[in-house]
Write a structure and sequence with these properties.
CATH architecture of the domain at 437-699: 3-Layer(aba) Sandwich
CATH class of the domain at 437-699: Alpha Beta
CATH topology of the domain at 437-699: Rossmann fold
CATH superfamily of the domain at 437-699: Alpha/Beta hydrolase fold, catalytic domain
Strand content: 25-35%
Radius of gyration: 26 Å
Number of helices: 11
């Protein structure tokens, strides 16, 4: 009898294990006989039909995939617990740096769980703030978002702002009367990648031609132009100020100097490097003057002082410098260095009073230095800890400066700094149900595959035992000259609370060490990015922070490409992977929306050498049926018109078809959302709860929540 009971128990255990690892039955995805030939190489593309986001067949496929995904997620007990704790943590008041215009202050605030931040106005420093614009009233589901970049007219009567619907990159420009809060009739649509630059009784903005219904979310964006809109006039009467029909794949955006004397136009054909044009608005017969040639360098006008333009550039300065250009002697030989380049990166500069605040990146951390207007170093602005500074708001007419400081465990705190006295004070500090003193943030340097020294931030509870068994989240980006600095995310706090580790390596392709660091991860050097990330994972395992069975990785957009590539190359190193809104089809990415602007970063399949490089690492084209993949949850959205969801659709269809193991490989497709910006708070909470529940289940890691 005892033997029978033991056998019965063993059978139950075997069946239990079998059921817990049972392979999901995925929706059947139709294949088509589509083959493309690149330089004699035939490449199959059986899921090409999924590129049509308007077809009913694609919509049915999306619904079937989401049903499979949410059927799986709904059965994870920790999901609701993650969601509940996320809501508790998220429910704290946040504020963005105030922008001062005259005596008025403008700032965004959120009481905690509001879907969108609210724009407030304070008529002077002693008055009570009042709501100016509440985007939460734009829609019932919180999917219409307002950009945090607002533009106030020179006479301080009007405020122009941009909204986007469902997360799309397509924006609309609206205008209100600041005093009466009345919305004007002016309403401009089909705006994309635009500034709002006031001039007299109107403003400059950038737009594309109106797309047809079928192409608005996936069609290629071309023929960008700068227009001028005069308040109170029909938008079809807006004047074209700058365009170049000979180059349909270039973008243009405009800025106006503080005294409205000059207009600057930036011309780009990729995500880095630009041409700079200037025109004197007081001389209507004058044409635009081109200050630069080619797209090898970046130029950004900080402001204009008298006849001098103050410009941030990496021209002959890979880590950037500040120069002065006199309108009467524009030749590059007459440019004067105000703040020469250093051995760390000059991120931005702000004019405050008669001084310059220089924001630097030093070993992936923020550093603030103050200079005279002639470029003489004065002193540093002391920062409270390892972290990053953002949203520096200042003016040459004022000594009052506002900036936000944040770190991995420190929520964005607003500081008010007096440039005249070199003193700063906390202006706003959030009150959150989280004790940062219980956690440690450290920065280590590890060696990449080729011996390059790479920094990595590691965050975890104090006293956490490094026994190789800690659930660890490894996150990075590695591209487009984008620097990953210490940042605050409520989502990560929940991971850390559950005895997890968060690690963020500053891999090549980013801008943490200037343009050379960026170029080391571009085009034919892209493999360095993947190698650096893999080396970070190996370091965490070798140093007993975690193990491959407890290592989760995630990245979005270009970071989604990173995740897709590394799980093809080292599937054994990771337990769970989240490729989010990723560029996953490297042979066709340039054919959709703004993808053509990334050719300078990745290369193009139209070039034989670049094709071979792209084909060798393209996540979609390197899925191997013989490999044991980690658990994968692809994340995308139906309104993503930056990286169209077809990338994710084709990728997961291929993975589900080829992968023979039992780990789940699913896709979560958010409706009424885009590339990330503008997502409602509820959407972000739901998505993160789903991800962390998926990760902990597939790492077989325990949460701190009671059963």
């Amino acid at each position: 009898m005892k033997q029978i009971r033991i056998l019965a128990l063993a059978l139950v255990l075997i069946l239990g294990v079998s059921c817990s690892h049972q392979k999901i039955k995925y929706p059947v995805t139709k294949k088509v006989d589509q083959v493309d030939t690149y330089f004699g190489i035939k490449v199959k593309d059986p899921y090409r039909w999924l590129e049509d986001d308007h077809s009913q067949e694609t919509k049915n496929w999306v619904a079937a995939q989401n049903k499979t995904t949410f059927d799986y997620l709904n059965k994870i007990p920790s999901r609701d617990k993650f969601k509940s704790r996320m809501k508790e943590l998220w429910n704290f008041e946040t504020m963005r740096s105030p922008l001062r215009k005259g005596d008025r202050y403008f700032f965004f605030k959120n009481n905690g769980l509001q879907d969108q931040d609210i724009l407030y106005m304070q008529k002077d420093k002693d008055s009570e703030p009042e709501i100016l614009i509440d985007p939460n009233k734009f829609s019932d589901d919180g999917t219409i978002a307002m950009s945090h970049k607002i533009a106030i007219s020179g006479n301080e009567k009007y405020l122009a702002y941009q909204i986007s619907k469902g997360g799309s990159d397509w924006h609309e420009i609206l205008v209100i009367n600041i005093e009466t809060k009345e919305k004007l009739k002016d309403h401009i649509k089909w705006v994309k990648f635009s500034e709002i630059a006031w001039y007299k009784d109107g403003f400059f903005y950038s737009k594309y031609p109106t797309p047809n219904e079928k192409d608005k979310l996936s069609g290629i964006n071309q023929y960008h132009k700068v227009c001028y809109h005069k308040l109170g006039t029909p938008t079809n009467e807006d004047k074209i100020i700058f365009e170049n029909k000979d180059y349909p794949l270039r973008n243009y955006r405009a800025e106006v100097s503080g005294d409205e004397k000059y207009i600057f136009v930036y011309e780009t054909e990729s995500t880095s490097g630009n041409n700079l044009y200037v025109k004197n608005l007081q001389k209507k017969k004058d044409n635009f003057v081109k200050l630069t040639t080619g797209f090898n360098y970046d130029y950004h006008v900080i402001d204009q002082v008298g006849d001098n333009f103050i410009v941030l550039t990496n021209f002959k300065a890979p880590k950037y410098k500040l120069v002065r250009i006199n309108i009467n002697s524009l030749n590059v030989g007459n440019w004067v260095d105000v703040i020469p380049d250093k051995n760390y990166v000059l991120r931005n500069c702000s004019l405050a009073g008669d001084k310059i605040i220089a924001s630097y990146i030093k070993d992936a951390k923020s550093k603030l230095e103050v200079y005279t207007d002639k470029g003489e170093y004065l002193y540093d602005i002391e920062l409270p800890a390892i972290g990053s500074v953002s949203s520096i708001h200042s003016s040459p007419k004022q000594t009052e400066v506002f900036f936000a400081f944040k770190s991995f465990t420190v929520a964005p705190t607003i500081y008010k700094y007096d440039i005249a006295t070199n003193k700063s004070e906390i202006y706003f500090k959030p009150n959150i149900d989280f004790d940062p003193e219980k956690y440690v943030t450290k920065q280590i340097f590890y060696q990449g595959k080729d011996g390059t020294s790479i920094p990595m931030f590691i965050v975890h509870k104090k006293g956490l035992e490094m026994d190789g068994n800690n659930p660890t989240l490894l996150f990075s980006y590695g591209g487009f000259n984008i620097s990953l600095l210490p940042s605050f995310k409520v989502e990560r706090l929940v991971w850390l609370e559950n005895n997890g580790i968060f690690a963020m390596p500053n891999i090549r392709g980013g801008g943490e060490y200037g343009e050379n660091w960026h170029k080391a991860g571009m085009k034919l050097n892209k493999q360095n990015v993947f190698d650096d990330f893999i080396a970070a994972g190996e370091y965490l395992v070798d140093q007993s922070y975690t193990s491959p069975e407890k290592l989760t990785i995630r990245g979005g957009s270009n970071g989604g490409l990173l995740i897709g590539a590394v799980i093809n190359q080292r599937p054994d190193l990771f337990a769970v992977a989240f490729p989010e809104v990723g560029v996953l089809d490297m042979l066709r990415y340039q054919l959709f929306t703004i993808g053509w602007a990334w050719v300078n970063e990745y290369g193009s399949s139209d070039d034989p050498i670049q094709f071979e490089n792209l084909y060798n690492y393209s996540p979609l084209h390197n899925i191997d049926e013989d490999k044991k993949y980690p658990a994968v949850m692809v994340v995308t959205a139906d309104h993503d018109d930056r990286v169209v969801p077809a990338h994710s659709f084709k990728y997961i269809a291929t993975l589900q078809d080829k992968y023979k193991g039992n780990n789940p490989v699913i896709i979560r497709i958010q409706t009424k959302a885009g590339h990330g910006a503008g997502k409602s708070t509820n959407m972000r909470i739901d998505e993160t709860a789903d991800k962390w529940a998926f990760a902990f289940k597939n790492m077989k890691a325990k949460t701190i929540y009671p059963d």
